[in-house]
Amino acid sequence: MKCNECGVNDELCLGGGMNPHFHPDNLHPQVIYRPNIDIMYHENVDIVHDLETGIPFHDNHASAMRAVHLLQHFSWKNVPFFLKECIRVLKPGGHMYIMVSDLEWVFQQVLVEGLTPGHVCSIWGEHDHPSDFHKCGFTYPLIRRLMEEAGFINLTPAFKRNPWEVSVEGYKPHLLP
Questions:
Q1: Whole-number Å distance between alpha carbons of 59 and 55
Q2: What is the DSSP letter of 138?
Q3: Which residues in the chain land under pLDDT 50?
Q4: Which site among 5, 70, 159, 173 is 20 to 30 Å from 128 CA-CA?
Q5: pTM of the predicted protein model
């Protein structure tokens, strides 16, 4: 759907890289999150921007946003700022979906299996390009608390593709304090 104020689609993909069309639960393939905003240019990136510095849209622009495996690429010091930016850009009642690596699950597996290449990627990133490394990590309680502190409500665990992932969805309140 187009934003009445600026005419740009109001369902944003934050850090989607080469996969902006991916809908996390695979049940809603008709939902396309565009524009796709990413730090590096790829064929499917619509806006090249460092999201760690903010989201390049006006207040109350988006009805929905998704950030799949984006937050672990930020400094842990900037995650609260980014989540507040999400609140700023979402319309009242807007939906946010976040998926990150679940470090608690990964570390439990490391204790059982030892450190495998898959665990290394979950902890430190794949290092396929200069921005593809992880600066921080998350567990469900941590990402939920950070989202609550930013102002999100009705937070619930959401669909995840793999056991090493944690997903949370929440909403911007209709009225902010």
A1: 10
A2: B
A3: 26-27
A4: 159
A5: 0.90
